Amino acid sequence: MESMELTFLLWLFSLFYTAMEITAVVTAVIAIHDTRTPQGAIAWAISLVTFPLVTLPLYWIFGRSKFHGYVDAIRAGQEEFHRLIGDNHDIPSIRDLTERKRPHAPRTVFEKLSGIPYLGGNAIELYTDGNSTFDAIFSDIDQATDYILIQFFIVHDDILGNRLKDLLIRKAQNGVRIYFLYDEIGCRSTPTAYWNSMCGANIEARPFHTTKGRHNRFQLNFRNHRKIVIVDGRIAYVGGHNVGDEYLGRSAMFTGWRDTHVSIVGPGVLGVQVSFAKDWYWATHQLLDLDLSMPEAKGTAEVLALGTGPEDALESCSLMFIRAIEAAQHRFWTASPYFVPDSAVMKALQLAALRGVDVRLMLPEKADHKLVYLAGFACLKELDLPGIRVFRYTEGFLHQKVFLVDDILAGVGTANLDNRSFRLNFEITMLVEDDIFCKKIETMFLDDFTRCVETGPREIDSMNVIKKTLVKFARLLSPVL
């Protein structure tokens, strides 16, 4: 009897494994068809066929790189927008190539990717730590009279999170309309009571719903990584800070926290509002009643809000970095907490070094995501060229996402130099053309470099065999990290 039971169990397991293997083969074909990069397709296909029991559930949760439904929803929203509002807005259109004096300038590509042109007449402030960033944000929120738009990837129920919540509840009680959009995966540890207390005060607090829709239901791979605050349509904040005490330097894991944010006053705010309004419509199917008139000029900077994400027809985030690197004649300096670029960005960096550009990469000395951190060492080895310098930030965790091209272009936003930002996350970068602002970014970089140790691209050479093997393994996984 026991022998028969064992035989039956073995037969049942064999049947189950055969079904899993067939499903894995079918899924591998889907992965080859849908995965955006050849490297990612190969990695998934081999893993699915070889280790179906482990890889199959991982693929259906994390594997796909196509985000379904967003474009259709936004198209429907635009039709409703035009039906209700018509031409009662000042959202400008980009110029045709034949109308441009310099059609080959970087801004041509950036505007094509964004769908909104550069807008001049902006005043920009630079914030290089969490305390000054949130002091400014809270001050402007406190002065709001009409509406507040807020979007963050992470919101913690801690000291900073409760300061924000209490301020927003007070403003809502004074009649200010508040719309709060958060990423449900980034905020998975935030208690429901936190959001309920806001909703109880008539604050519209909604998750982004990356799992909404039949094709996205089981996916945890897509994240809305944008960090935006807009007050009355007159000032916008964009950058790397989330809402959490660690962004004020109160981290149990790191001795400090280095991040960068910007505020924009002027016409450039319009582009940030459009980005938020699209995300809000996806999440709620509600059109917001916003001030879409052209803001008054307050400065001299030309600004473009470039939103990128997995719904784009092209890999907009990767293309943004490639075009910025290609534009560099003298220097390309960048800071990112995660450095696992794709092949195209790596080649752009190599070409920049070969034509004599001063390429500097500022990265964290300590990691918060081990696999991504390890994969970065293998990437750096491929950049062992004269002119490419690597700096490790030593005074806490480096989280800023900034780049500087010569003295003419600066980018500050939420996008990292990794596969997740290139293909899986919804990101936003403020692209700024302004001599004065670029000088501030240069000064900021130079100050940060004094808090770094220069290591160079060959860091992997000093590692032992075990760590080198882990680096190589992590590099293989980089297309699906």
In short:
This protein has 481 residues and is an alpha/beta fold. 43% of the residues lie in helices and 20% in strands.
Give the arrangement of secondary structure elements:
Elements: H1 2-34, H2 38-50, H3 52-63, H4 70-85, H5 106-114, E1 119-127, H6 130-142, E2 147-152, H7 159-173, E3 177-182, H8 192-199, E4 204-207, E5 223-224, E6 228-231, E7 235-239, E8 257-258, E9 261-265, H9 269-284, E10 301-308, H10 316-327, E11 331-335, E12 339-340, H11 343-354, E13 358-364, H12 370-381, E14 388-393, E15 397-398, E16 402-405, E17 409-413, E18 417-418, H13 419-424, E19 425-433, H14 435-449, E20 452-454, H15 465-477
Parallel strand pairs: 2-3, 3-4, 5-19, 8-15, 11-13, 12-18, 13-14
Antiparallel strand pairs: 1-9, 1-10, 2-6, 6-7, 7-9, 10-19, 11-16, 14-20, 16-17, 17-19
Helix pairs in contact: 1-2, 1-3, 2-3, 5-10, 10-11, 12-15
How would you describe this structure to a colleague?
The protein is α/β, with parallel strands linked by helices and 481 residues long. It contains 15 helices and 20 strands. The chain has helices spanning 2-34, 38-50, 52-63, 70-85, 106-114, 130-142, 159-173, 192-199, 269-284, 316-327, 343-354, 370-381, 419-424, 435-449, 465-477, and strands spanning 119-127, 147-152, 177-182, 204-207, 223-224, 228-231, 235-239, 257-258, 261-265, 301-308, 331-335, 339-340, 358-364, 388-393, 397-398, 402-405, 409-413, 417-418, 425-433, 452-454. Strand 3 (177-182), helix 8 (192-199) and strand 4 (204-207) form a beta-alpha-beta unit. Helix 5 packs antiparallel against helix 10 and helix 10 (316-327) runs parallel beside helix 11.
